[in-house]
Amino acid sequence: MAGHGASLLLLLGLMPALLQAVRINSKGREVLYLAKGDSVKLGCPYVLDPEDNGPQGLGIEWIQITPERTGPEKVFLSYHDHHVDYGSGSGLQDRVAFVQSDPSQYDASISLANVQESDTGTYQCRVKKNTIAVHEVIVTVQEKPAVPQCWFEGELVEGSSLLLRCYSRGGASPLAYQWAKLADSYSGGHLPSGTIQGRAPGDLLIRSLTKVHSGVYQCRVTNRVGYSVCQLNINLAPRGRQAGIIVGSILGSLLLLSLLGLLIWALICRYRQKECQPACSDCRSSTGGTMTRGCNVCAHHGYSPHGISYMQCQHGDGDERAAALICNDGLRHQVACPAL
After folding, report:
1. What share of the chain is helix, strand, coil (3-state, %, to 5)?
2. Which contacts (CB < 8 Å, 24+ apart) does range 278-283 have?
3. What DSSP line would sit under 281-326, residue for residue?
4. Predicted confidence band at 236 (pLDDT cuts at 50, 70, 90)?
5. How far apart are CA 119 and CA 96, in angstroms?
6. CB-based contact 163:153 (threshold 8 Å)
7. Which of 18, 20, 150, 257 has the fewest CB atoms below 10 angstroms from its CB?
8. Which of 340, 304, 306, 292 has its CA nearest to residue 320?
9. Which of 301, 305, 292, 306 is nearest to 323 (CA)?
10. pLDDT by residue (tens digit) across 46-67?
11. What is the mean pLDDT of the chain?
C-alpha cells in the first residue's frame, strides 16, 4: 500500500512536466483581415521540453473550421514522422505549404497563397507530442475597395462654391472616404480652410474658392483590408485672367458670326448675278445692238401678279432701261427696251 502511494505521488509530480511538454509560442487567438488575392503566413511556432526533444512521435495538424462546413473535422495539412500529407476536399491543397521544409524544427507555421473569400474561417494548428497544444487563427477575407471615380461640380471661378465628389463601386463594407490636398503645406491629409464634409460620404465642399484652394486633391477609400485612390487637379485662374477669357470668348463668337454673315451675303450676290445674266442679254437684244456699255448690275423682281415678271438692267452711266417679259399660256413675249 505504501508502494502504491509512492507511485501515485511520483505520477502527480510528473504531470506538470507532461502537461507542458508542448507549448505554442503565440499570444492567444489571432484575428486577421486579408484582401482577396493576398498571401499570408499563419504562424504556429512551438517549443518542446528537454525530455521531449526529437522528432519521433511528433504530429502536426492544420484544420479549417467554417460555418458552412458540417460533419467531422477535416485535416487539410499534416506532418508525422518526416512525412507531409495534404488532405482533400478543402480546396487549399494547391495553395498551402509548411513554411519550414522540416516542421519538426519547432515551427509548424504555414503559408496560404491567393486567398479567396471562401477561405474565411477559423484555422487550428495542433501540435501533438505527449500532450496537444492548439493555436487558432481567425481569417476573414474581403474585397478591397475598387478604384474610385473623382469629379467636381461647379465652376472654377473665384468666390464660387465647388463640390468635389468621390465614389467607389466595389469593395467590402464599411467604406471610409478621406480627402487630402497634395500640396506643400497641406500634405498628410490636411485641407485648407473653407472646406467641409458634404452630404454624401465621398463629398467635399469648398464654399468660397480662392487661390489657396488650387492644387491636386486626392480621395482615399479604405476598408479593413486595403485602400484605393483617385485624384483631381483644381486650377483656379486669377480674376483678371477669367475676365480676359470671357471677353475673348465673346469676341471670338462675334467674329465667327460676322464671317458667317459675309459668306452668306457673298453666296446670295453670286446667285443673283447668275440669275440676272439672261435679263441683261435680253436688254441688249431689244435695243438692236445699240448698247455699247455692258450691264453692271442686274436685279430680278419676283412680283408677277398676272404671270408678268419684270427685269431691270442698269448701265454704266446710271441710265436705266427696262424690259418686261409677259408669260401667257406658257408663251414668253419680250417688250423691247426704250432706245438710248
Report:
1. 20, 40, 40
2. 279/311, 279/312, 279/313, 279/323, 280/313, 282/311, 282/323, 282/325, 282/334, 283/311, 283/313, 283/321, 283/323, 283/337
3. HHHHHHTTT---SPEEEEEEE---TTSEEEEEEEETTS-EEEEEEE
4. confident
5. 12
6. yes
7. 257
8. 340
9. 301
10. 988 776 666 668 899 999 987 7
11. 76
Residue 137 in contact with residue 32, Cβ under 8 Å? Answer: yes
Please determine, for residue 21, whether its predicted confidence score (pLDDT) is greater than 90: no
Contacts (Cβ under 8 Å, ≥6 apart) of 95? 112, 113, 114, 115
**pLDDT of 40 over the 90 cut:** yes
pLDDT, position 66: 78
**DSSP assignment, residue 45?**
B
pLDDT, average across residues 330-336 = 46
Residue 8: which pLDDT band, with cuts at 50, 70 and 90?
very low
Q: Record the cell numbers describing residue 69, joined without a space.
A: 462546413
Q: How far is CA 262 from CA 62, 253, 272, in A?
A: 87, 14, 15
DSSP 172: S
Distance CA 54, CA 82 (A): 12
For residues 276 and 301, the answer to whether their CB atoms sit within 8 Å is no
Take residue 39 and report the three cell numbers written for it: 498571401
Pairing of strands 121-128, 162-167: unpaired
pLDDT class of 190 with cuts at 50, 70, 90: confident
Query: How far is Cα 333 from Cα 308, in angstroms, rounded to an integer?
Result: 10
Enter the C-alpha cell of residue 199: 452630404
Residue in the structure block whose three cell numbers are 500640396: 183
pLDDT, tens digit, 9 for 90 and up, residues 239-295: 555 455 555 667 777 778 888 888 887 788 777 666 555 555 554 454 444 444 444
Distances in whole angstroms, Cα of residue 306 to Cα of each of 24, 264, 329: 118, 32, 11
